[in-house]
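Risk register update: the risk of archive-format incompatibility is retired. Evidence:
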Amino acid sequence: MNEYRLKTYLQEANVHIERLREILKEIKKYYPLNLDTFLNFNLEEKNLFDAFVFRFAKLQDLIGAKIFRNFLEYSDFITKGKSFLEILREIEKEGIIDIDTWMELRKIRNFLSHDYPQEDEEKIEYINLLIEKIPILFEVVEKIESKVKRI
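Archived output:
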């Protein structure tokens, strides 16, 4: 049962990754994003960036809430009663992602999940940072898939 669940979550993650890669192709032409460009986006451009942020948030939530724990359980690590920080420490020991990098991505996600117009400049900085950092999440999924194949 656990293997099936983990593989289902990994398939879902790959759907997000595939769509994020498609969106990234379009977004790259605006990179690095600046305030003038951002404020003059048409509806289609706004929707493109919204989809990018949405897919990133969905992927990170899926990895953090389901994939990490299920992967560790699949690897015979007892997760019941463990805090998320304990889960992250074990994930770091497995060489999947370090805690500081995960927390940085979480900070980006938390900031971008709000839409405060007075923070447009900071939002642009976070979007530019996300464009640079999103491949890290792709690598996390790839590393877990690779480890699952070896178990």
